Amino acid sequence: MGAFSIWHWLIVLLIVVMVFGTKKLKNIGSDLGGAVKGFKDGMKDGGQSADESAAAPAAQVTQDVRADKSAIDVEAKQKS
Predict the structure, then answer these.
(1) Is residue 42 part of a domain?
(2) Is the separation of the CB atoms in 78 and 59 below 8 Å?
(3) pLDDT reported for residue 1
(4) Residue 1 is assigned to a structural domain of this protein
(5) How many domains in the chain?
(6) The pLDDT of residue 57
(7) Where are the beta strands (DSSP E) in 1-80?
(8) Phi/psi at 65 (5° precision)
(9) Mind listing the pLDDT tens digit of every residue in the chain (80 residues)?
(10) Considering only Cβ atoms within 10 Å of each terminal Cβ, which end of the chain, N or C, has fewer?
């Protein structure tokens, strides 16, 4: 464990628990777990969207209209 022994790490852990409290550490852990799960689900959906895009039309046109109506940004996407 490098230059620190197990006792040093236990003391650091004890201080962290005393400063933040177990409830806040539990919430941080559950938030982190939810973020990892969401990332994994997003990666799965990314692989499935390639199959869905095969059924989509050959070209899609998106249009971005700004609030001041002075500029319109249009982008055409071709199926590759």
Answers:
(1) yes
(2) yes
(3) 47
(4) no
(5) 1
(6) 54
(7) 59-65, 72-78
(8) -105, 125
(9) 467 889 998 999 899 889 988 888 888 889 999 999 999 998 888 766 555 555 555 555 555 555 556 666 677 777 76
(10) C
Bridge-partner residues for 75, per DSSP?
62
Q: Which two tokens stand for residue 52?
A: 């869905």
Count CB neighbours of 25 within 10 A: 13
Query: What amino acid occupies position 66?
Result: R
What is the pairing mode between strands 59-65 and 72-78? Answer: antiparallel
Query: The whole model's pTM is what?
Result: 0.40
Q: Give a yes or no: residue 72 inside a domain.
A: yes
| CA 50 to each of CA 38, 45, 53: distance values in angstroms, whole numbers, following the listed order | 19, 9, 5
For residue 80 the two structure tokens come to 């590759």
Q: Which residue range(s) make up the domain with 10?
A: 6-78
* Residues present in the chain in total: 80
